[in-house]
């Protein structure tokens, strides 16, 4: 048996229970212990050797002696806490290629952007750098995560190609999206586009910039896509309209011309205006029909379609009942023919042909004319029948009755009837007698003494006019003070109406209407009657109000005590009405004034009087409880009365009872002295985010520059500190108005940076064609490009290209803006200007030619250049518009080719014709055959003739149409030429004979037994004997 230090090896306590006795006094210690007797435990850096976390982990190494770890393969460090990855300790900066963490032996956990067993390969946009066919689009090296070093001709984060100065994502690349930049300077064109930069394309077989593309009427904007000029349409811009009618329609230009361009018509002869919608008849436009005398429609040049009843070249003639409108016999000589078969009668005549005179607004052919009792033979002239007379006015042939005509106010007894025929009165209702002189009232003749109850006069049938005070249909009633005698309330209901306005009053009543009576000698309506406490309802009868009594309602009580008793109202008030006490001076209260009042409260209101803390023992006299003071017994709190401004810590609360403060919300403590701001005591050093003072519960007074409920907010240049816009969005706001700027930004609020060496404030760094939006980054204005926005195009050509602005007809001054040279205009300077109008203006060259060069017109057929303005003016039948011979010596204006616009009164193709009063100037009957038509409606009369159309002439001082001309015995056929009627002779047809003897000789008519009044006509003389 081996013994170690006095104990057998079989003793469990040998070697201090922690080892085995292997040789005398030689212990072999268990793991984790040492010492001669294994009495000491082993620790590695504070951890017991047998612990699972000794040397970091039992899987990493063993604690072999105090603070000595034996590390397993792949681990290192004094406590085996370090991993080894490919021979490099995990705490070495070079471990995992410096791009990851060594998390286990030979196990790297790569940071984002790296991969590989030792994190040696960067990743660019999700592609490993070793994948050379795809990383950086196969045209660069991935040197760092998402960092490509591109080959020449490739740019951007992922090495996209560039084509002719633009990267593949630029909207302008490959001629602004006509293709895709697939490799350096290699465009793959979209369908329909071609050229190295996909800049070319065709529209229906013609190059996009050909002068004849899109039928010369539009712009080829994409393959087989024409953008038509204003007014043109169709796939190839080959269609257009004139006034919304398609150019090749038979209705275009109103059917009167040819549509040669949008809203541009070439009119047929005789038609004019923008859409050939106008023409003339007899010198007047078709729109007003004056050329057809307003009696027809001008349907084509100089062609009138006359209205029904009108005729003549200008529709100027018409008839009234087969007689020409201007004939002297038309309309029976009593009117004017104003339209076909339409007579406008003179005053006093009517009828279709004005054949009837009118008497007092009634036509002569009416059965009612002249009252139906006479004949209308001239206007307002009646011939009356026997027994009828004319009235003045009107002369209507009215009858007479007993010496008065029917219009006389005295007829039929002053119009008690109507005179309807000779001496025949038709009486009004209620009248009778031959002359309607008699009538009755209530069956009694009007002049009987008993009529109208003898109290009035019978003035008309059954109409009595009563004497004063009487009424009723026969004056049988009378009234008192406006109330009939038999009505119940007559005489105020207090008497009898014995005659008009005479009342006999009942006992105790008086007055003219028995309306008055007294109570106790006072008038019933007096305010003092019945002691003011009741109503006087009849003589000496008072009806007392509630609570009053006595013959005149003079007595009342207050709670059983007579109002005048000295003890009434508890001796503290006055009894002013039944059971109503008026207490003295506001010092007493209660129904009977039985309670004292202290400061507004009755002494029996113990919860309120003296604030409930005392006794009201007299008016405004409180006896307070202990701890309460003052007139109204207010509480004391910690030595201060409740009314003190300092009570409860300067009124942070209210002293509601003795030494009891009721704190306001947010305050606490016996005297309400404490409060918090957002969970921190008001006097804490960290209260209000250390940027202010806690002045009241949850109320911070912030230091200068700070704000917010807890003073936790501030601004830099008025922008809140945590806004993305703070420090102009280019830095971090760390304190009020204190910015830390990002790289490339500077100044107090990081508001400045540079582009190409110039500050962002003036945009010179972007050639003034863009905005410097961040360091060395320009945001170019629309149409500009380049790193400094230095380039721009005009309609697909670089600004300095030799073909820009239509072969340098101008200068490209900004994107798609050409400044045209003198004489050119249009967006691309493609239109020359002729005399102030662009070649694409419908008015250029006066609308009659093409402007081919500046101020150079190529005129259409039928038009020539004016010598004064070099614009295209029309010719009319061999003369240009400015020639004095044009349009028959300027009888009109040459408005279009071979189209004369005639002056008023002239017509014809060349304005060669005109009329005088409806007849052609060269007609044999013009000017009444008595003169010459020298201008429209202008006659030059032959000698002896006069009048507007030479229609008048005289015979010996009398007009030819006078009934007295030629002595009334012949016709004036020419100036001073009479054609005598049969039997008459002499220059003026003044002579004639009776049976061979001249009319004025003494022997005529058998020696003047009669008078020769006409040829062979003697008028006998009668002698009274």
Automatic annotation (TrEMBL):
GO molecular function, one term: cell adhesion molecule binding
Keywords: Disulfide bond, EGF-like domain, Repeat
UniProt entry tagged with the keyword Membrane: no
InterPro entries listed in its UniProt record: EGF, EGF_extracell, Teneurin
GO annotation terms (biological process): heterophilic cell-cell adhesion via plasma membrane cell adhesion molecules
Transmembrane regions listed in the UniProt entry: none
Pfam families, alphabetized: EGF_2
Record-annotated EGF-like domain positions: 81-120, 170-199, 283-316, 322-355, 403-437, 476-515, 521-554, 639-673
Disulphide bonds in the chain: 110-119, 189-198, 306-315, 345-354, 427-436, 505-514, 544-553, 663-672
Name of the protein in question: EGF-like domain-containing protein
